[in-house]
Amino acid sequence: MILDSDVLITLLDPRCPRVLTERLAATPDVVCTTSICWAEIVYGLMRRAASQRLRARYEDSLLPALEVLSFDKLSAETYGEIRVRLECQGTPLDEADLMIAAIALRHDLPIATGNVRHFERVPGLRVEDWLG
Questions:
Q1: Residue 3 half-sphere exposure toward CB, CA atoms < 13 A
Q2: Would you list the domain boundaries of the chain?
Q3: Cross-strand partners of 113
Q4: Phi, psi of 114, rounded to the nearest 5 degrees
Q5: CA pair distance 39, 44, nearest whole angstrom
Q6: Does domain 2-129 have CATH number 3.40.50.300?
Q7: What pLDDT, on the 0 to 100 scale, is given for residue 51?
Q8: Rounded Cα distance, 31 and 1, in Å
Q9: How far apart are the first and last CA of the chain?
């Protein structure tokens, strides 16, 4: 299971719904994220001029519990195939979401997200709404 950025952010929010943490605890699959999701989180922290303490909380609490999957050569090839297909259909996808989807397809893993609409356009991608 790949956790999308919005799920990761919600997990560290003090107001995180208990149902989300329970769902995560009950997930039998390997739980991971992508280098793209981590980049989105770092960007958000930097943009908000978040404290080092908040960034350390992500790095100390979240990252050790997750495998971070990289955007590698096979992911890049999958990305190219998906991008052409979606553009030909007139339903392009945001670059970051497209890269995350390519990594998920390359590893044959579902994505846990609150942005189901974004990802459901990708053929063959398994998407679960964890924030809806």
A1: 28
A2: 2-129
A3: 129
A4: -105, -5
A5: 9
A6: no
A7: 67
A8: 5
A9: 17
